[in-house]
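Sequence of UDP-N-acetylglucosamine diphosphorylase (Hanseniaspora osmophila).
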Amino acid sequence: MTTDKVNDIKNIYAKAGQSHVFSGYDSLSSQEQEQLIQELSKIADPAALINSCQESIAQANAMKSAKSATIEPLPHTSYDSVIDNPIKEQEYCEIGIDAIAKGKVAVVLMAGGQGTRLGSSSPKGCYDIGLPSHKSLFQIQAERLQALQKMCGSHLGKDSTIEIPWYIMTSKPTYQPTMDFFTENHYFGLSPKQVTFFNQGTLPAFDLKGEKLLLQSESSLVQSPDGNGGLYKALVDNKILDDMLAKNIEHVHMYCVDNVLVKIADPVFIGYSIEHRFQLATKVVRKRDAHESVGLIVSKDGKPNVIEYSEISNELCEEKDSIHPELLKFRSANIVNHYYNIDLLKKNLEKWCSTMPYHIATKKITYFDPETKKTVKPTEPNGIKLEQFIFDVFETVPLEKFGCLEVDRTKEFSPLKNSNAAANDNPNTAKAAYMALGTQWLKKSGAKVPEGVMIEVDSKMSYSGENLAQFSGTDFAGKNGTYLSR
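Predicted 3D structure, token representation.
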């Protein structure tokens, strides 16, 4: 990089009050200097970023004393359920299968997290929850995609399967390990051409006042992933939207890697969204109980939104539905499983990138002190990390163009978030949920499965319980923990 360019960047950071990032510049090697300049140049306007951080701090403080918003469940025009409604479920499914079979559907997977809470530094998608087959989350999802492709190919009377584009968003630490994992496992039977890996962005960390950028070393800033809301910018920066448009994609399904029961490219959800001409839709499950710590899909001041459980009172948490008094009034738990119409993304994606708010997280952040030339490991929170939330764009969609589909938790949602030391959402509960679902499919197909026996059904064999008629009458007594493959 030329001397003039370096001086320009130094001046930009000096005007933003960030001269300290260059305090050790002259003592760095030429390679380290280049690294620092390249990293700093990625922040187009550091002064604007500092201002955004301080605005986010002020907004967070203001929210603590803000007047309560009007929160209601979504209206019936934006809400439907397929629980105990197989006819409606099948109708939606047929619409979705037709769209998938015609090549109109793509899938976006958010897989930037590591299995840190699980005691692993590998990408969470590589994690083995302890199934008899020892399949990773990535393998389960790749194979379910294959099962769906075969099903949709049959819909068109094709012998070969179709290929659903699968876009996998990683983070800086998970990008290469994820690519290596897929390569080593031959993409789990998928075509490499249908899988695209791309990175989400990062944001620098700040001191507690949001005034100073924190250094990782003399040649780098402290950086962290920009949150699940960074998906939108990543779709633009990595030209993923352009690729979708070139493939004539019309419908996009987005989900998180940690849900072992996820129905990837779910034709029911796709069909529901198409049938009602929604621009954006989301799946929900019923809360386990009134006080489950989970975000809720609601109407907030007349706009679709996600609120944290802490934003509503105990009285509202426990209030019953006036029409279905056996159910909670506010029961629609957010599982980060969304549908986007491609026209919505085409029209709004770049605007969202520039207008989405930042949220602050106060953290203990290890940093390099340019004055003492030492790395500091704090014992108390000393800094702020910024992130964006994917659902912050929901309120930009008219309520009549927003849909919410309630699905059965036992069939579609068992996340892997904690170690087995926790009571829920751990490897043991994920394994149990996955095997319980396969066992339920077998029973429904006429198999004889005694109480207490749990079977793992090959994820390539069945997407949602189909193709198991050959096991009708099969006795699985004494076969607890069996892996049932083709």
